[in-house]
Design brief:
The protein is mainly beta and 123 residues long. The chain has one domain: Jelly Rolls. Helices cover 0% and strands 53% of the residues. The radius of gyration is 14 Å and the shape is globular.
Length: 123
């Protein structure tokens, strides 16, 4: 598992990635999984409840790929009121996801929460 020196990055690709957990079980966010010899910098993460009633969201960075390892929670069963958005990560406090890690989301209600992340992939 490499840990690239981002000061000497040869490429930086920016992107916006999306996830809608369709069930109430943990979903690995493959759009945030770094490729070999890269790191993903999450500049922002917004959770939007698209229903009229409150729904919960749990988001974690896991210590292994594919949702494995230990879950370190960014948000844990956080209630989001109906028709409301909540910023979980912002550019002032970014998160870095290494190639040996993964991001996992679990919604308390099917299809209620839409997650949108702005990222930079550095290699």
């Amino acid at each position: 598992m490499a840990n690239p020196n981002i000061v000497n990055a040869t490429s930086i690709y920016v992107s916006t990635t999306y996830l809608i957990p369709t069930g109430t079980t943990a979903t690995t966010w493959t759009g945030l999984t770094p490729s070999a010899n890269s790191v993903t910098k999450m500049d922002s993460l917004t959770a939007t409840n698209v229903t009229n009633t409150a729904a919960t969201i749990t988001v974690s960075i896991n210590s292994a790929t594919g949702g494995g390892g230990t879950a370190y929670r960014i948000a844990f069963q956080l209630p989001i009121p109906g028709n409301t958005s909540l910023m979980l990560v912002d550019k002032g406090n970014p998160l870095y996801i290494g190639e040996g890690q993964s991001v996992v989301a679990t919604s308390g209600t099917n299809n209620a929460i839409e997650l949108v992340a702005s990222i930079q992939v550095l290699s």
